[in-house]
């Protein structure tokens, strides 16, 4: 397991520590979770953009049209 140092001003340090405390998390777990969620969000957006570009010119139909076609 590795260790990462993070430099924060006093205000940011207090904010992050208080947020983690409010959510019953230790500081290390909170920071780890926040960083991993940021990476996942960016990956999801990149994947969405890629799929959107690939499929942007394909024909789309509405939910109402699907319901009509299925007799619902």
Automatic annotation (TrEMBL):
InterPro entries for the chain: DUF6290 (IPR046257)
Pfam families to which the protein is assigned, alphabetical: DUF6290 (PF19807)
Superkingdom of origin: Bacteria
NCBIfam families: RelB_antitoxin
Protein known as: Ribbon-helix-helix protein, copG family
